[in-house]
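Fold these two proteins, one after the other.
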Amino acid sequence: MAKVTMPQLGESVAEGTIGRWLKQPGDAVAKYEPLLEVITDKVNAEVPSPYAGVLKEILAEEGATVPNNAEIAVIETEDEGAVDGTASAAATPVATEAQPESEPEGMVQVEPADADAAAASASAPASGPARSDERAAASAANTAPTSVRSTTAATATAPSATAPSAAPSADGDPNARMTPAVRRVLREHGLEAAQIAGTGGGGRITREDVLAYVEAVRTGQTPAAPGSNDALAAGQPAATAGAAPAPAPRAAAASTNAGISFPAGADEVLVPMTQMRKGIAAQMTRALSAPHAYVQMEIDATRLVRLRETAKRAYQAKEGIGLSFVPFVVKASAEALKKNPTFNANWTDQGLLAKRRINIGVAVAVDEGLIVPVIRDADTLSIHGLNVAIADVAGRARQNKLRLDDFGGGTFTVDNTGYLGTNLVMPILNVPEVGIVTMEAITKRPVVVSTADGDTIAIRPVMNMVLGIDHRANDGAGGAALLRDIKAWLESVGPDTAIY
């Protein structure tokens, strides 16, 4: 029998939580076939089976938090099955209690990189987090940014655990996804998944869906039917779902902020941290132990905007995905890192660990925080190659199909905060990396332009960029040199710049 152990999902990750088993005892498993979903403070990812054979035993149940390298399952390999005279495909399944599929809180939901692309093809994969070319107001009009969308709410007091007496018929999805915590709330109230209208991604049932159902029954209202438009609207902020549902005549809670409800008479409520927020808090505390320094420059984006505007429609028609500004900045960063190799490195207690490969992380907003999947060997990819790689990560993130190799091994990070309309952000390092650069909003500003006839004032699209550095590894002069090279590359693009 071969033992499956909990993998390490990140350089500083010590444990993982079993989100969902994709196979059950008795199921045949192919090598590298997804076996389970694991949740950590950094990533929610599918873990492939290291062996081919039959899953004989699950040693860690859904919801259990397990340290790295601990045994979580037993697989009878194909060789063992042949010796025992049993074919893996004909193995008798072990009877298990039917469990609805669960989906970890905080799975990535990445909005399209380009509003035009989103309108042109709703089925096209998302182009990643790149939206610095669009105004914040336009972003809100088209789709609410995922980084400011909160899908978790806290309540100071739980409703009665008594099962509702007038439950509607169970005509919903009995296998709707939910976390182990939500399944526990269902059991506490004597409910079934089929009774609840899931408003999360892909019909996922959230804690708020269950509590809203219980409150609706308690106050004598008709709960939203599974799959109805009311059910979908009820779980969305007003900015993305139109007008908020009218409050119940006897509502016990009044919501003053999307995702947070205050019980009647309460002036404050504790919002418990999710596992991701706990991990982010710990990581940020570690990161701020590094001495940060910052360098800021303005980028004249005239040529960059012109190139992208000229190429994006033909590119969209040919490739089926939008062309954002992010791959240009990643390319510029990769080229600049070649000239400034002390920034393509990790900091260790023994000193600077320089890296040969240029693996650039691209920050992606999720419901409860931020994750940084890595584009490996970014310096070897074209603008198109980088755009496809970012779109691929974003598309799989929306489908909860992130892989282990999407994380870890990063040497530098690009953080696109500009799609929210920011103009100056002081980023925190993604330690142990020693550099991170932000993309701010591209805005039109009056600038002084020198010509043969003298200086004149012109309106130009300008983007601020802020480089955060680990001052143990590099000084401000080195940071200015790196950012200067990024700026020079971006300002030099033109009609002859190769997209492919």
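Now the second one:
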Amino acid sequence: MIGTNLQVRRAVPEDHQQIAGLMFQEANLHRHLDWRPPLEWLGSPNYWVLQDGGRIVATLACPEDPPGVSWIRLFGYLPHLSAPEAWRALWEIACADIASSAESQVAAIVVKHWFQKLLLSSGFKIKQNIMLLEWRNENTGSFSPPADVWIRQMGSEDIQAVSQLDREAFGAFWHNSPDSLQRAYSQAIHASVAEDDQGLVGYQISTGNVFGAHLARLGVRINAQGRGIGAALVSDLIQRLGAHHLTRLSVNTQADNAASLALYKKLGFTRTGEEFPVLIHEGGR
């Protein structure tokens, strides 16, 4: 039960400063790797705060995007609370609210063990693991696209078509909405598409930082898979990394995606040994 001085309410834009301060408590924070910072979701449904008087002491945000999937984008609490105390107070309200408004899965990619324990104690189940791989300036050769396919730089006008391709390639659970892809595109160090006479058949979006580049998304239309289009897109990306003086490229993929793992092995990627579980809670209950 929530203590007598604690109250859960919906977060509002005016909570920005207090939530920003709470996010400095890194040890007590789960944050989803997202194109949109958690504070930008303020005002969206499925965003709550736990308040002690006029002070925000914990927060939980799991707005729905894509439709049907509410990713936990933020959970954090001040250290005078225990993790179970803060989580139970917020999750009780969130779970009931999400279940009453839509049949949505609540999901999280977990980096910290303490957060995984909280989710498992609340009925979440492990769906799969995400694996991290990296390429380090290896001479893996060049892979060209099929003769009837060409690669060009992505433009903002491609976002809608890319989103449709993304849903077909990844399914509803992992789908990137047009808004997510637009944000990814705006933050990309390089984004490209592969197309033929019928339209887009593949795409990639990559970001960069001081440590190297990250292949954030690689998708190929289902009926075009197996033709070397994915390898050609990544090969083209690797050749362009030299212009940015980047010699390291990382990528995440599902540990049970044999085709994806085979592709990255062919391109010279190796496993780092890091894996992160994906947990889901069906129906918000």
